[in-house]
Amino acid sequence: MGPSMAQQPHSLYLHIPFCTTKCTYCAFNTYINLETLIPAFVDALCAELRTVARSQLRTPLWSIFFGGGTPSLLTIPQFTQIFATIRENFDVSPDAEITIEANPNDLSYEYLVGLRGVGVNRLSLGMQSAVESELKLFARRHDHTVVKAIWPDIRRAGFDNVSIDLIYGTPYQTLESWRATLGATLALAPEHISLYALGLEDGTPLKDWVEQGRVAAPDDDLAADMYELATDLLDEHGFHQYEISNWSKPGRESRHNLQYWRNWPYIGVGPGAHGFAGGVRYATILAPQRYIAAMQSGADTDYPFPRTPATVDEVEVDPDAEIAETLIMSLRLIEEGISLANFESRFGRPLHAIHGDTITKYTGYGLLEESNGRLHLTRRGRLLSNMIFRELV
Ligand code: SF4
Predict the structure, then answer these.
(1) What angle separates helix 175-188 from helix 220-236, to the nearest 10 degrees?
(2) What are phi and psi of 33, to 5 degrees?
(3) Nearest CA to ligand 1 atom 5
(4) Bond prior to 158 in cis (omega within 30° of 0)
């Protein structure tokens, strides 16, 4: 927090909405059997990037993130086309963090070298579990031998900043199998680890199976124990928890993640992306075919930043809403929390003048703590964060 939105560094999120198979828990905006659309999609994505850039973003991009879907389904020439468009149209910080999410079995040494060549400097690997039966339940395309086999090539290709995604709270998962997954992850020695509690999302096979009694329901208490186990184990191995779901080696926090939690601006492009820039929260058209058609027909018109022909659901964020969002998101940052000085310079009012009573109350309960000019949740406060958040909106 600190400078006004127009002066804050911006991030760029690119959504790649294609997958080879659909995982059983997945509710992301992603489609199978549409790979033939990828070339037209890449052209549309580049048109969208040019449209956003024409509306004159004045600050450099300091993080770029390809998420999905499965970005690793794009070829190196397709990434080359996208990066050429980004660099021609935006100012990219020389030290920008540039991440792609990758599925382990899409990777080869040559492909990884190609990614480094186009400027990707961080990999987010969708490992999810090291346990065969859990990966089968998820219908993931890889098993752990694939991850172990590709890992040396990831390093040899020059990736020295790698994040691993894991899922816990899975049906049939035990503390022992979770410990095995964490152990296998630590054996790889990544720089960053994200842990996601399994959510049963509407419309997913996993949710249907649980509701039909065909698969055991996840156990919330056990999931909480898994979180505690991970928190202790990762701490013992030199990872520090900088956000509720994210751990890193010192200095390897994800800049792109921090952008979201600080409620700083990010531009979202690609079908189903979300963005927050120019005081507007927005989304883009979900279906790839409609997205491509919108960009083909409207790309030559000027749109006010950050809108494009693919923008839908835009909402102007008023100052009160921005304050509430900033508090809730920043409190997810374990140590950083909210800087009281930055809050005041961003919003023109001291935080205590707005929420003094709430802060005093929860500090008294030991759920919030103020130190070094920052307000953050205590370990106990993290478990009860929703109660606190309700009073801050
Ligand atoms: S690879 Fe990721 S985006 Fe694709 S179906 Fe699986 S979880 Fe969803």
Answers:
(1) 30
(2) 60, 25
(3) 22
(4) no
- Ligand 1 site residues (CB inside 6 A) read 19, 22-23, 26, 28, 30, 68-70, 103, 126
pLDDT tier for residue 379 given thresholds of 50, 70 and 90? confident
- Dist CA 234 CA 241 (whole Å): 8
pLDDT value at 55 more than 60 = yes
Tell me the three state secondary structure of residue 301: coil
Q: How far apart are CA 79 and CA 111, in angstroms?
A: 11
For the CA of 25, the closest atom of ligand 1 is 7
pLDDT tens digits for range 218-227: 999 999 999 9
- The model carries a pTM of 0.94
* 271 C-alpha to ligand 1 centroid (Å): 15
Residue with tokens 């996993």: 206
Å from CA of 127 to ligand 1 middle: 11
Can you point out the beta strands (E) in 179-265? 192-197, 240-243, 246-248
Ligand 1 center to residue 165 CA distance, Å?
A: 12
Burial class (CB in 10 A: 0-12, 13-18, 19+), 29: buried
Q: CA–CA distance from 233 to each of 46, 78, 226, 237, 254 (Å)?
A: 43, 40, 10, 6, 20
196-221 pLDDT per residue, tens: 999 999 999 999 999 999 999 999 99
Tokens of 234: 């990762």
DSSP string, 137-180: HHT-S--HHHHHHHHHHHHHTT---EEEEEEES-TT--HHHHHH
* Strand 61-68 relative to strand 280-284, pairing: unpaired
Report the separation in Å between the CA atom of 142 and the middle of ligand 1, taken as the mean of its atom positions.
Answer: 12
Q: Which of 33, 70, 74 to mutate to test the pocket of ligand 1 (most atoms within 8 A of CB)?
A: 70
Average pLDDT over residues 82-105: 96
Per-chain mean pLDDT for the chain:
94
Residue nearest to atom 2 of ligand 1 (CA): 69
Q: Is residue 6 very low, low, confident or very high in pLDDT (cuts 50, 70, 90)?
A: low
Give the residue whose CA is nearest to atom 6 of ligand 1: 23
